[in-house]
Amino acid sequence: VSATPPAFVHDLATCVGCHACVVACALENGTAPEGFWRQVVTFNEDRRPALPVFHLSIACNHCLDAPCERHCPALAIARDVRTGAVLIDAGRCIGCRCCAWVCPYDAPRLDDARGVMGKCTLCHHRLLEGGTPACATACPTGALKLGTLDGDGPRVVAGFPDVGIRPAIRFLPLRGRRPDPAAEEKAAAAGAVAPGPWPAPPGKVSLRSEWTLLVFTSLVILLVAWLSASLLGGPRVLPAPFFALGAGGLALSLLHLGRRERAWRAALNWRRSWLSREVIAVPLFLIVAAVAVQDARPDPLLASLAGAAGFVALFCMDRVYGAMARERRPKLDGAAAVTSALFLAGVLAMQPWLALPAGVVRLAAFVERIRRCGKSPGPGAWALAVARVAIGLALPLAAVLTATAPVVAVVAAVAGEVLDRAHFYDSLEVTTPRGRMAADLAARRAEGAHA
Amino acid sequence: MPEVRTITTACPRNCYSTCSLWVTVEDGRLRRVEAHPANRAAPDAACLKGLSYVERTYAKDRVLQPLRRTASGAFERVAWDDALDLIAGKLRGFRAQPRSVLFYAASGTKGLMNDVAASFWRLYGGCTTTYGDLCWPAGLEATRLTLGANEHNAPWDLANARLVVFWGKNAAETNVHQMAFVQQALDRGAEVVVVDPRRTETAERAALHVRPRPGSDGAIALAVAHRLIERGWVDGPFVRDHVLGFEAFRESVRERTPAWAAGIAGVPVAQVERLAELLGTTRPATINAGFGLQRYTNSGQALRAMIALLALTGNVGKPGAGWIFANLRSQVFHPVKDPIAFYPPEKPDGVFRVSISTALLGPHMLATADPPLRMAWVERGNPIPQNPETPAVLRAFRALEFRVVVDEFLTDTAREADVVLPAKSIFEQTDVVGAYWHDYLQLKPKAIEPPGEVKPESEVYRLLAERLGFPAEAVAREIPGPSEAEVEAFLAARLRAVEPSLTLDRLREGPVRAPGATDVAFADLRFPTPSGKIELLSEEATRRWGLDPLPSWREPVEWTGGTSPEAQRHPLHLLTPNTKNRIHSQFGNLPSIRALDPEPVVQLAAEDARRRGLRPGDRARVFNDRGELTLRVRVDHGLRPGVAVVPNGWWLSEGGAVNLLSKARETDMGFGAAFHENLVEVEKA
């Protein structure tokens, strides 16, 4: 990388949101409308008074600390030393979408037809020929240019996620706008300021799109819990159903990939990617467990080893989502899979010393997640919350403490944990410019309301 | 290695910018569209529509061969010979009464080659055609009556302005290249004023944004004039030497106070006063009126009042100053410049019957007698959804015996045709285009072979002329043959007739400014009006249009300011502006445009939506006694309450044709279409 790698210079004052950059990018790179690499995100799109309307033209910012590169399990993303562009190698990409989850700029998009991820290449091919990116070439007002980070202008503006990954973009701020106070007052008097609901932008990750991951991770949690419980005097591991569930889970996890035949590549980035580590640890757990449970009376050491491998796998799994959430402070949910397995193991083994503390941690994590969502829950959400706590936690704990109805306890606990995991996926939030813009706008409006 | 050629061409759409383009053609296929930097008005880049030409040229839904309607009502592909034989047979039948054939062409593609159509119909023995225009005649006529000609300063001169008033123009969407000059002016300390009921992207740059009741602009302009005079912000020497009718005008606006206008327009008095203060104390000042606000029954007079403000303050004929509406300097090929070209001929030439007002297309077609219309030929236009009163236009077309539509796509109008002929794209025949914002003449050379069986219209006319047995000598003279050399010879002759130095080779290099073009219009302060001055008092306004000789304001027929029962039942004023995503009804069918603009919507002010129990995303009926649309609701907190906005250009077949709701009416002058003067009500669907 040269001393001053290229960076987008985006003038918010001259950008009129004309979308020429978006169409130019699509044309140059042959992307389909559902997978456009560049997007224009508008601040205050419904034009509330006393707030400016402006646009961010956003694609990949070729961050100097690119999380997509760091976290790609298949080692398919790398920075090109000639241009500084962060590039996805379509021949290596497995279409796991990990890059899309860790990118706060919503840059990597799934190319449905090819099953791989695609994103802005900085028009690498044009740069090598001495040209400029198509988007910058196509800007009729000169609002988007390719320059360097050396120069004036804020690195962060409202609606632009700042997560400390050194994106190669700087902004020229709004200037010369002096909204007329009289007009603003008139607009306010017309009732336009009554704070209406701000429609939340659709999340990037949803339960509907990720149900295969829900089933896969739930199965691994269950199997780790089962093996662990068997070591604590719980029900013996039955090899046939154990492996049927394990194999089923692995098969389902493949469905998540755009290019299943390259699934093996998911393990390549074990040095840096928690996903790679999970991809290694889960089969390792199943293999060690397979050896251990061959005997009707498994070797305790081997079985313990298998259990340990299982918890390592669950720890990796939790870290995958931790990387995605880019949490500054650890959250209780940060160990969702590990604590879930511990709780289920305690219930399966009918061991209050394990089930009770694990159950309390699970409850706290659930409450924290509900609080974080911040939305006022509807009746359906209330019913689910009550079911999760009453059936999934209170009922099995009562059974464990009174040492009664073990089958009911296990069924209820498993149901509760699956429900909880589904809620976990449903409330997963990936930072996007659109989401950040909505949040920043809400904050500005709240400020305005207090002022 | 593929053969790669870069060709200098121009975009011939009905758009201010008329960009010069560099297109890259690889092995005969269009690959890339970029701006040609020699066009100083649009040097940096094209727009999203220009970029989408690659997609448009090779679109899956493009019509690539002639289509004929079958007995079942569906279209079938037919060979050119069959299509032409069928049309020639019909034309032979109608030739006993050639005026039973309507020739209708709109503004879809500009160019000199379009003139071949008129030559063909003249050889045919005539036909019936339209007068007037949908787009801009009231403003053209207001400008002609006041300044004598539709000319304005070069686009880049706007950077010199210290005050820019955008009156009903959202340049950010309809003339995006102008925003570069606006920003240059702003960066030099200029002020921008926007007068628009919508908080547009352009209004984001404004220090003063006035949101008047639609139809009230003329009242505001008169009150600003009142204030300028009252406060002594008048350039006395300029008015004395160059303005006709100042005394009479001063008398006529004596009662036109800011309070009077504020009451009519529903805006704060202070805003009217502030606009006057800015115009009275800032030099140089430019007023740029859009096209939308002159589509009212009182709008020609409103624009005359706006020009008067520049005359009073001496803001004419100087850098950074003046009136921007339309710049017709590059319209050098026709004997009479617009807008007079739009009038029905005072002395009919005995060949054509110019009897149908474009604004009243449906009703006039239906009422035409002696002979009644039996056939229509439509090209470069999609009149069914785009002309006022869509139901009447549809009825009129369905009442005909035979319809031919030439288009690149199956528009609403093409879907009504008996025969659809494929139209060329902008890259498939050489042509020369002018503009109406900058003053460049541009060559649009043939860059690719037409795909499929597409033939340029001139070739279709030539083949029909042969079939109809027109005199070979006349055909050879009027209609160029199919080869490039013949087309170029045809164009070269037209250019030579205007100015000997205008050669195709010069145009091949890039855009060429029209003969006599200068950066500052009327710099010599000589105005081609009857008096040679700026005419605030125009006798022609009275003689030709029966209007007050001075700019004045009267109530529109339909508006929310009145107390008519109509305004009670349909209390929202419908605006149907253009957006950046389309040129009228073009481009919206392309996947990349559709991805950005997926469905037609109605925008409502927050209080209007709340009062009707409507939330963003709801579906709502937008209706009046003429028709209805069911559209998704978008709440726009910046919109003036009492206004409903449905961007135009959606097709009937897409569920968004706005002219289902409009009334066919003419503007007060110029034979324009007053189709922004419609009241509607909105309710939950």
Counted beta strands of chain A: 9
**Quick one: overall form of chain B?**
globular
Total count of helical runs of at least 4 residues of chain B? 25
What Rg of chain B is obtained from the alpha carbons, in whole angstroms?
Answer: 25 Å
Radius of gyration of chain A: 25 Å
Q: Give the low-pLDDT segments of chain A.
A: 190-198
Structural class of chain B: alpha/beta
Which class do the helix and strand fractions of chain A yield? mainly alpha
Low-pLDDT ranges of chain B = none
The whole-number mean of residue pLDDT values of chain A reads: 88
Helix content percent band of chain A: 40-55%
Q: How many strands of chain B?
A: 27
The mean pLDDT of chain B is 96
Largest β sheet strand count, sense and barrel closure of chain B: 6 strands, mixed
Oligomer: heterodimer
What general outline of chain A do the C-alpha atoms trace?
globular
Describe this protein's structure.
The complex is a heterodimer of chains A (451) and B (685). Chain A is mostly helical. Chain A is built from 15 helices and 9 strands. In chain A, the strands form 4 sheets. A 3-stranded mixed beta sheet of chain A has the order 8-1-9. Chain A has a two-stranded antiparallel ribbon with strand order 2-3. In chain A, a hairpin with a 6-residue loop joins β4 (77-79) and β5. The longest helix of chain A has 26 residues, at 300-325. Chain A is globular. Chain B is α/β, with parallel strands linked by helices and 685 residues long. Chain B is 31% helix and 18% strand. Chain B contains 25 helices and 27 strands. In chain B, α4 runs parallel beside α18. The model of chain B has no long low-confidence stretch (mean pLDDT 96). The interface between A and B is large, with 48 and 60 residues.
